[in-house]
Amino acid sequence: MGRPKEHNAATRAALLQAAAQMIATHGMDALSIRGVADAVGTTTRAVYSLFESKAGLLQALAVRLFELLDEAIGTVALTDDPREDLAAAAIDGFRRVAIEHPSLYSLVFLRVVPDLQLGSDFSAIASATFARLEALVARVAEDDAGDIDVPQLALAVHALTEGLASVELRQGVANPAAEQLWHDSVIALVDGFPRRTSGHR
User: Fold this and answer.
1) 35-73: b (≥16 Cβ within 10 Å) or e
2) pLDDT digits (tens, 9 = 90+) for 167-187
3) How far apart (Å, rounded) are the C-alpha atoms in residues 69 and 64?
4) Residues 92, 8: contact at Cβ < 8 Å?
5) Under DSSP, is residue 6 helix (H, G, I), strand (E, B) or coil?
6) Which of 40, 130, 152, 200 fits a 20 to 30 Å CA distance from 9?
């Protein structure tokens, strides 16, 4: 049998968890290779072996956020009402992940590290997640009598949810009416989005 890798997937996951916790507790400036290694009980060599640098660690955290988002949207149970399914994906997907991982949300969407290059792995998972959103919007289009520009509506939904999440996180307190606001906003956007009927293409 081959020799097991010294720094495996479990170590990688633990380091990412420690890094996310460090940022959430002490802020982005507190993140350090030494601090993350110490939190996991490993060496800085392990961090460098897995992520190459602090920037690589941040890139991996950004990828992790979109993995969580992709998973959350993918687990939304579909019904025979595509509009409600889209709203549910926004609430149970985007909102839940943003609320549960505010430091990672800030890293990706608020660009609190403005010069961070997110890299090809991030681009791949971000594209896959947006494709999942587009599939939900396509179901709305199929159920609609008009002609909806699916990519444009998906982009609009993304922009709406990003804005709602940013406002809610900036307030710093739980808003008991937030879920209803998210629901009503997504439905209003879908219902008010321009349609092109077959006679006016």
Assistant:
1) bbbeebebeeebbbebbeebeebbbbbbbbbbebbbebb
2) 998 886 567 788 999 999 999
3) 9
4) no
5) coil
6) 130
Distance CA 50, CA 32 (A): 15
Q: How far apart are CA 113 and CA 125, in angstroms?
A: 20
Cα–Cα distance, 35 to 38 (Å, whole number): 5
Output the CA–CA distances (angstroms, integers) from residue 160 to 43, 122, 128, 137, 139, in the order listed. Answer: 42, 21, 19, 14, 19
Give the Cα separation of 74 and 96 in Å (integer): 13
What are the tens digits of pLDDT across the range 95-120? Answer: 999 999 999 999 999 888 888 888 89
The token pair that represents 150 in the structure block: 């699916």
Q: Are 87 and 183 in contact (CB under 8 A)?
A: yes
CA distance 91 to 68: 14
User: Is the full-model pTM beyond 0.90?
Assistant: no
For 34-66, the pLDDT digits (tens) are 999 999 999 999 999 999 999 999 999 999 999
